[in-house]
Amino acid sequence: MSSSNTPNPELTGSLSLRTGDHTWGSARRMALLAAIAEQGSISAAARHIGISYKAAWDAIDIMNNMAGEPLVLRSTGGHRGGGATLTPKAVELLELYQTYDRLHQRFMSRIGRLMPSVATQMELLQTMIMQTSARNQLPGIVTTIKTGAVNDEIHVDIGQGQIVVASITRESTENLGLREGQKVLAFLKASSIMIGTGDTRNSLSARNQLPGTITDVITGAVNAEVRLELPQGLTVTASITLDSTQRLHLEAGQSAYALFKASSVMIATL
Fold first, then answer.
1. pLDDT per residue rounded down to tens, the chain (270 residues)
2. CA 23 remoteness from chain centre
3. Beta bridge partners of 156
4. What are 267's strand-pairing partners?
5. Beta strands of the chain (E only): which ranges?
6. 174-210 burial, b if ≥16 CB within 10 A, otherwise e?
């Protein structure tokens, strides 16, 4: 039974600016521009929106390059000192973005009022229409973020007690705004997944070892596709050599493991 104190879900969304196939004006980067205008420096703006100084500089370089002209002008003044100002072009873009974003949020709010269940449905649609070359997409929730000097370790609960571990750069963690409890997608290319049986999996150093049942083995001239169903109903597909398939005697109905390195896992936010 749901509690009367549980708030109704809200339907929200964000706008982005694109040039060709490249997205350079995301909501976070627009927030950075707004913070620079308010704070007068890159370091203060970075602290204000909760990203690293390096991530802020990288974002500015991307925006300057993709816009075709400078959006942020920097003046030196010592270690992480000096100031920063927006160019007239940046001010114009920021004002335009903020205007459209207000209209967009009003539109999303109106849809949410008209269709109470639309938030859940839109989230599902967003997952379904996301385009990526990665064959495997595993939805889950971030349970742990272990911060390192260069790379962070992200633990994603995909259900039934199964955890997928991803190793991504600390900058990526900040740019994605990852936090514990957040819904994400873990992406894996089929070629990054190995298949192991009870006799072979313990001899491999792969951090992720997900147990499941083989549902299909599709053989080709050189490679084979092996589909593995996990306990929660998710399916992962591995592309392995035909020799490996024959050597392991893989067949439908057999228990096996999907093995892959943490560095092979990509994370996307919803």
1. 334 444 444 545 566 665 555 555 577 888 899 999 999 988 899 999 888 888 888 888 777 777 767 888 877 654 545 688 999 998 988 888 888 878 777 776 766 665 555 555 555 555 544 555 567 888 899 999 999 888 999 999 999 989 999 999 988 898 888 999 998 889 888 899 999 988 666 667 788 999 999 999 998 888 999 999 999 888 899 999 999 999 999 999 999 999 999 999 999 886
2. 14
3. 142, 164
4. 186
5. 17-19, 22-25, 72-75, 83-86, 136-146, 151-159, 162-169, 183-188, 194-196, 208-219, 223-229, 235-241, 255-260, 266-269
6. bbbebeeebebbbbbbbebbbbbeeebbeeeebbbeb
Rounded-to-integer distance, Cα 20 and Cα 260, Å? 33
Q: How many residues does the chain have?
A: 270
What is the residue type of 67? A
